[in-house]
Description:
By secondary structure, this protein is an alpha/beta fold. The chain contains seven helices and 19 strands. It has helices spanning 2-17, 187-205, 222-231, 275-278, 285-314, 351-358, 360-379, and strands at 23-32, 37-43, 48-55, 58-64, 66-67, 72-77, 80-88, 91-98, 102-110, 119-127, 165-171, 181-182, 185-186, 208-212, 236-243, 253-258, 320-328, 340-347, 383-384. It has a six-stranded mixed beta sheet. A six-stranded mixed beta sheet has the order 14-11-15-18-16-17, sandwiched between helices. Helix 2 (187-205) packs across helix 7 (360-379). The chain starts with a helix and ends with a strand.
Amino acid sequence: MALLALAGWILLLALMASPAVAGEVNSVRLGGDRTATRLVIDLSEEATGRLVSETGGKVVVALSGVEVAATLRGRGHGLVKAWNVAPQAGGVRVTIDTADGVQVRRRFLLPPGEGASGFRYVIDLAPVAARPLPTDAAGVQLTSLRTAPSSPPRKGQKSRADNRRIVVIDAGHGGHDPGALGGDRREKDLTLAAALSLRERLERTGRYRVVMTRDRDVYVPLEARVQIARRANADLFISLHVDSGPNDSVRGASVYTLSERAAGRSARLVTKDDWFMKAGYRTDQSVSGILFDLTQRATKNRSATFAQLLVDEIEDEHALLRRSHREAGFAVLLAPDVPAVLLEMGFMTNPDDQAFLADPKSRGRLVVAIAEAIENYFRSDLRVASR
Length: 387
């Protein structure tokens, strides 16, 4: 019996000492065209990604937690000339040969679900700059920016050396639309003050290029605000508002992301120039729908990730509603390819909230919390979808 017990302990220790079984790379797929290309790596298990380099027409990403028995290679498509996935210590090395002037727009991991049995690591590639599109009388571009470059970058656009994240700040209401009222205060004034302060704080870091939907007291249509974010190829969109209610005792901030019920309305913003629409022109029209759904799902997940980070930072500086993260169908949240939240900074109808937001010092503390949430969101190397 003693020998059997000893053998059992030896077997247990051997199992504990053995390395965890890594997942496998099952396949690599490409979609899109020369305006935007998506590379999808199908995995049997979850993996962690790190961007190693992005220079000289070559993108290198290291994936840990998965392995491949022998190097996989494939021909290019769209902006990709060729690719290979090679084994390396602790994981695999993904090398993508690209056309000139191409950058990684975003990377994220999708879990199994919606017809997919395994994990998917997604790498989106796009040209560094794009030619300007037609504008309306108000200067708002009429279609989303998804066209290939034909000229040097315009002022305000990213250059190849510009690695700043693009954040769009939307000050709610404006012009003839004052928003909620509280005494002699107007929502449009408080949202603009907070938006300008947030822009200044983000730009001061040198890590962000901030685009404002408005920087003065003017009215901007809701759909135009979304198109501003899409044409800027925004990495994040945050809309600032102040709530109102029938009961002046209700107070606190809340964060909204797009509800599942309203997600179908995002299709109204899609144009034939979007990369996921072009992807099906030469093959199967259903491909466009699949890529649109995949893009929107990933965007909703990233929006939810930022919303939670925002709530975590705000609660130390300002009161929160009991259910602080909510879902709604607000028009400014409808972009299928830009993570977006709407922040209600408090209630105009509550004296304490109104005083907090009207005071530059306390409002400044809220802005610091918002900026810190943005820093935390981009600080992580990988966005993992959770739904």
